[in-house]
Amino acid sequence: MRGAYRLNSGGRLDRDRPLEFTFNGRIYSGYVGDTLASALLANGVRLVGRSFKYHRPRGIVGSGSEEPNALVQLGKNPRTSPNQIATQIELYDGLSASSVNCWPSVKFDIRSLTGMFSSLLPPGFYYKTFMWPRFLWGLYELILRRSGGYGVAPDMKDPDRYDKINAHCDVLIVGSGPAGLSAAVEAGRTGARVILVDEQAEFGGSILNANENYHKSHGMNWVSSILDELKLMPEVTLLPRSTAFGYYDHNFVGVLERVTDHSSISDGLSPRQRIWRVRAKEVVLATGSIERPLVFQNNDRPGVMLASSVSAYINRYAVKLGSSAVVFTNNDSAYSSVLDLLSSGVDVAGVIDPRPKPNGTLPNIVRSHGVPIFDSSVIVDVKGSKNIRAVELMNIDYDSKKIYGKSHKLRCDLVAVSGGWNPTVHLHSQSGGTLRYDVSKSCFVPGINSQNEQSVGSCNGTFDLKECIDDGIKAGSRAAYATGFGVGEWSENTACTDFQTEDPLCPMWKVPSSGNESKWTKQFVDFQTDTSSSDIYIAAREGYESIQHVKRYTTLGMGNDQGKLGNINGIGILADALGQDISDIGTTTFRPNYTPISYGALAGPDKGILFDPVRKTAIHEWHEAAGAKFENVGQWKRPWFYPRGREFMEEAVERECLAVRESVGVLDASTLGKIDIKGPNATDFLERVYTNSWRKLQVGQCRYGLMLGEDGMVMDDGVTAKLEDDHYLMHTTSSGAGNVMNWLELWLQTEWPDLNVYLTSVTDQWATIQINGPNSRNLLSKICEGIDLTNDAFPYMAVRRGVVAGVQARIFRVSFVGELSYEINVNADYGLHLWESVIGAGKNYGITPFGTEAMHLLRAEKGYVIVGQDTDGSMTPSDLGMNWIITKRKDDFLGKRSLSREDSIRTDRKQLVGLITEDPSTVIPEGSQVISSSSGSVPVPMLGHITSSYMSPTLGHSIALGFVEGGHSKLGEKVYVSINDSKVISAFISNPVFYDPQGKRQDV
Amino acid sequence: MSEIPTAKSSIEKELNSIPTFNTLNESSVFISEKRFKDHINLRLDISDDGNVDALGNILGVEVPIEPNTVNINGEVSVLWLGPDEWLILTTECYPNSMLDRLSKGLIGKVASIVDMSGGQTVINLDGPNSMNLLAKGCTLDLHPRVFGDGKCAQTIIAKTGVIIRKIDNSPSYDLIVRRSYADYLVLWIKDAAREYGLSLAK
Question: Which of the four CATH numbers 3.30.70.1400, 3.40.50.150, 2.40.50.180, 3.30.360.10 does domain A673-762 have?
C-alpha cells in the first residue's frame, strides 16, 4: 500500500523499497527516501502534535530543520529519543514514533481547553499569577512541571555507541545546495583539502525540493555530475547526514554526523552518531535560507504550510497535499509552488498577494494557467480546526497597510504561505560575524566577518539561482587560494545562465488586523511556544523594549527550534509596536547548537572504563590475582587491602598491620612520584624548592623534604636521595607527581634560567617495592647481592645500589610506617619478577602483602601526615608541628616570605594534633567537626576537624589525627567531636605520634 | 643465585586478546608492541659545538635540530623532544648498550642521560585506517602533508600523554607511551577501532 496521498510517479523515492512504520500506534507505509513527515503526509496524517501552551492541534509546516510542530517521541526504550523533528527523520523499516505534548491522545487533548481562555493567559502569566499566595508555590510547581516539556527521556542505559573525531581541512563548506556544491568542486579542483557537510541524507540542498532545469536538464543531474567529480578527489571528504551545529573560535566547527540513525539495524560496530571537531583554515557557509511564514488569524491550523515545503513534498516526496489549495504570498517565489501544486493535481483556488498587480516572470506564468490572483489582498482568518475548510480574504491598501472592504471566503483545504526568506545566518553569527538588515530584501544578511569565513548563496541574501552558483564558484576558488591552493581564478558558470525578473517583496511581519492588536491572540508568530502577535504588543505596552527581554517574557523563539520560523516576524512586530526601525531592534543571539544534539554524542566514547585513564603498576596483575580490593589514587589503581577468605576490610587491615609490626609486610609503592634531577646546580635547586637545607647531604644519603606553594602552604612532601654530587632522585606523593613536575619545570624555565639543572620524570621507569617490619633485613639478605646490609654499613636514610633477585636495583632505607624498611627500585620491566621473588623469599617470615589502608593506618600511628588527606592547601609547616624542617638561615625558598605573614604566625591557627577517644573502642568518623562542649546552643563554635581516624590494632585503641585551633598548646585537654545533633564523642588532645615516638624501631 | 629474569611487557595481556587475521582485512588496523633495547631521555646543551660532535660520534647520527623530527641511522633513532632534549631508541639488533656508551662518552659534560626502557613502551598502528583511528583521540593534524614520514610530536591521545612518530605512509605510526598508561591506551584503541576492525600484527 503506497499511502492514499502518494502521487503515482515522481519524487526521489525508491519505490522498490517500501517501508513499514507506526505512528501513534497505527501502522503506515512509506518508501526509502521518505522522511517521517513526508510519509505521514502521504498517508493523509495531518494532525501530528499539540502546541505547548494552548494544546491546539498542529500539523506539519516545514520540511527541514525549521519545523516547529512535528516533534515526536522516536523509538522505544532504551533507544527512545524525545523531541525529534519529523521532517528530519529518515524513514526506516520498523520506525515507531508518537506525538508529544498531548494527553490522552493527539486527536483529543484535554488541555486544549486552555486555548479557550487564551486571553486570560497573557505573556508573563506564570509570574503574574502564581506569585500568591506564596505558600501554594509548591503545589503550583508540581502542576506546572507536569504540563511543561515535550516527550520523555529514556530511563535505561543507552545501548548505542557514539564517536568523536578530529578533522582538519583547508576549506570547510557547509551546505550542498547550488552555492555550496559550486564552491566545493571549485575548491576541490585546486587540490585543497575540502570537507563538504550537509544535514540531509542527499546532497543538493534546495535543488532536491525544486523542479527546476539547469541548462535544460533537471537540477539533480547537475548535482550528480558535481558529486561524481568530488568523489574522485582524494582530498575531498563528503559528509551527508551531518549538521554543522556550532561555529567557535579559530575556525573550529562542530559537526554531528548521524551515522546509523537512518537504519533499523545496527551492526554494533559503527557508532550511532559521530561528532566531527573540524578545524578549517577557511569556511564557506552555504547554509541556504528558511522561508518566513505570514502571521494571520488561525495561521497555525494543520494544512497551513510554507510554500517551499509544499513544493518539497510534491517534488521530492511525491505527496498530494490536498484537493484545493490557496497560496498566500508577499513575493514572487511562492508562485513556483502554484505550478508544483497544479502539476500534482491539486486545484489552486487562488493566489492571495498584498501587492497590486504582481508582474514578474513567475506570476505571469501562473496567470497564463488560469489561476486567479487576488492582488491587494490578504488572508484575515482560517476556518476549520483539525482541517481547513476555507480562508477569509480582505483587501489591503498597499501604501497604508490597512485592510478595508468586506471579507469573502475561499474554500480550500491547504494554504501555502510565503512571507519572504530569512537567510540562515546562524553559523555566521556564531562565528562572531555581524548582521545587517537589508531593506531591499527585507531580511538580515551577514555583515562584517570576524573569522576566515564567507557566506554565499541565499544565506548571504542572494536568492537568484545564477548568482548563487556564480558566488559559490568564486567563494570556492577564493577560499582555496587563501590556503595556498589554485591560482585565484575561477571557472565559468555553465550550470545556469537565466535571470528571472521579479517584483519586489512587500514586507509584512503580520497581516494587519482591525482594532486593538493586543486582542489578536491567535495570530501565531512562534508555533512551538504559542507566542502570538498580541503577546508581543502586550510586552511592548508593558515596557519591554529590548528584543532579548521580549524573547524571554513572551517565550518567542525559546522552543527547541530556537525560533527559526518565527523570530524575524516577531522582531518586525516589535519594531511596529515600538514605532522603531527593524534594524534598530536587531536580532536575538544565534547560539549553538543549530539543531538539538543528543547527550550521547556529546559524551562520545568517554564513559565507563574509558572515562579516564586507569594507571596500573607493573605488579598490578599479581594484585588482581591475589584478590586485592583496589583504591583510586589520582589515576592510579592501588591495592587497598588483600582480603583472605571471607575477611571483612577491618579484619584484613588488622592482619596486614600486625604482620608489618611483628614480622614483615610488602607494599607496592610504584606509584610514588619520582623525578630525576641532574646538573651542577642540582643542590642549589633543592635548596630553593624545599624548606630545609641540602648542602651537607652526602652522596648515598636521603633526606625528607617539604615543598611549599608561594603562599607558604604545604603542597607536597617526600624523600630525596643524593646519588651523585650532581644527581638526585626526588620522591613525590603519588597523586601530586604530575603537578610537582610541572611546578618545578615552571620555576626552572621561567624564573631560574641561571640554574643548570635537568629534570626527568622517572615515575614509570621504576617499580618500587617496600618491605617493612623487623624481618625485612633478614628477607632482603636472602635475595640481595653486593650490599652490606648491616645497620652501620647501610643505616637508616641511606641509599645503596646493588643486585636484588638478579636485577640491578637502588635500595632506599626509608620508612613511612616506622619500622625497619627497605624500598627497592628496579626497572619496571622486572617489577613483577622482583615482587614474586620477595614473596617467595619471605615465605618463612609469613610475608604479608599490604595495601594502602594498612599503610595509612601504620603511618597514622607514627603521626605522619599525608599531603592531600590531612592537609588541604591551607596548612603551614608550623601548623603540622614541623618547624624543625624550616632552615631559618637559608636566604630563600619557595613560600618562605609567606610564612612570616601575620596570618601565618597566628597562635590560634588550626594545628595538627592527635586525638584519643575516651572510649578506646570508638572510632571517630573522618571529617567530623571538633567542638569545645558537649552541649549548648547551636551554632556551636567549631574548633577544628578530624582528618585521619583508625582503630589501631597495635595499640588496641582508636587513634585520630586532626586540626584544632591552637591545638599545640592544648595537649591533654578534653574536646568533643560532633556526630549529629544529639551525639558527641569525647576525646583528649594528644601528641600526634602514637607509636614509638623515639623512632627506635626503624633505626635497628 | 636466582635465574635470569625476563623483561615483562605492560600490554602483552591486553594485546593477546586481539585476534590475528591471516588474510588481509582491508579496513583493519594492525596493532603490535615494538620492543626496543634502549629508551634514553637525553638532555644536553648543544650550543656548545663540542657537545654536538661528541654526541654525533656516539650515536652515529646527528641529533635532529628541527623541532618534531627524527634522525635515524640503522638501529638508532633520535627523536626531537625539545631544544635540549631527545629520545634515543635502539632496536634489539643494536649490539651495545647505548646507555653505557653515552654515560662514558659524555663524562664531564653537563648532561642528563636517563634510562626509560622500563618506563615506556611503543605501540605500532598500521593500515589505511590507522590515521582515522588516531584522529579520534588526537587533535593534531596527521595528514601526510602536515605530519609526514620522519615526523614526531608530543601530544595527548585519549587523555594520555603520547609521543607519536610517523613511520611510513601505509600509514604506520609508533605511539610511545608511559608504561602505566599503556594498558588504558590499548583499551581505547580497541574501542576506537571497532568500526574498522583491529588485528594483532604478527
Answer: 3.30.70.1400
* Residue with the larger pLDDT of the pair A652 and A270: A652
Q: In this predicted structure, what is the pLDDT of residue B3?
A: 61
Domains and CATH numbers, chain B: 12-35+119-200 (3.30.1360.120), 36-115 (3.30.70.1520)
Mean pLDDT score, A671-684 = 97
Is the CATH number of domain A515-590 1.10.3120.10? Answer: no
Distance, CA of A383 to CA of A374 (rounded, Å): 19
**Mean local confidence (pLDDT), A808-836:** 97
DSSP string, A586-650: -----PSPSS---HHHHHTT-SGGGSS--B--TTHHHHHHTT-EEEEETTEEEEEE---TT--HH
Buried (b) or exposed (e) across A824-848, using 16+ Cβ within 10 A? bbbbbbbbbbbbebbbebbeebebb
Cα atoms in the Cβ-side hemisphere of radius 13 Å centred on A786: 13
Residue B1 binned pLDDT confidence (cut-offs 50, 70, 90): very low
Residues of chain B in contact with residue A679, where contact means CB-CB under 8 angstroms, are 110, 112
Q: What's the pLDDT at A130?
A: 61
pLDDT in tens, A827-884: 999 999 999 999 999 999 999 999 999 999 999 999 999 999 999 999 999 999 999 9
Contact call for B136 and A166, based on CB within 8 A: yes
Using the Cβ of B135 and the Cβ atoms of chain A, whether some distance falls under 8 Å is answered with: yes
| B56-60 CB contacts, 8 Å cutoff, 24+ apart | B57/B105, B58/B98, B58/B101, B58/B102, B58/B105, B58/B106, B59/B88, B59/B98
Least Cα separation, residue A179 to chain B (angstroms): 27
Of the candidates A510, A516, A505, A512, the residue with the CA atom closest to the CA atom of residue A556 = A510
- For residue B22, is pLDDT > 60? no
Within 8 A by CB and 6+ apart from A549, the residues are A539
Question: Residue B23: pLDDT above 70?
Answer: no
Tell me the sheet residues that pair with A702. A721
On average, the pLDDT of chain A sits at 93
Q: Give the Cβ contact number of residue B92 at 10 Å.
A: 10
Partner-chain residue, chosen from B115, B136, B184, that has the shortest CB–CB distance to A613? B184
The pLDDT tens digits of the residues spanning B47-104 come to: 888 888 889 999 999 999 999 999 999 999 999 999 999 999 999 877 788 999 999 9
Higher-pLDDT residue of A217 and A841 is A841
Residue A125 has pLDDT above 70, yes or no: no
CATH class of A1-149: alpha beta
Indicate yes or no: CB of B160 within 8 angstroms of CB of A613: yes
DSSP string covering A435-481, please? EEEETTTTEEEE---SSSEEE-GGGGT---HHHHHHHHHHHHHHHHH
Q: What is the pLDDT of residue A500?
A: 74
CA–centroid distance for A157 within its chain: 18
**Residue A1000 has which C-alpha cell?**
627506635
Nearest Cβ partner of A760 from B41, B110, B141?
B41
| Domain A613-672+765-868, CATH number (from 3.30.565.10, 1.20.58.1370, 3.30.1360.120, 3.40.710.10) | 3.30.1360.120
- How many Cβ contacts (< 8 angstroms) between chains A and B? 132
Judge contact between A830 and A648, C-beta under 8 A: no
Q: DSSP 3-state assignment of A912?
A: strand
CATH homologous superfamily for A162-289+423-482?
FAD/NAD(P)-binding domain (3.50.50.60)
Q: B134 to chain A nearest CA, in Å?
A: 9
Residues B111-142: tens digit of each pLDDT: 999 999 999 999 999 999 999 999 999 999 99
CA–CA separation, B193 vs B197, rounded Å?
A: 6
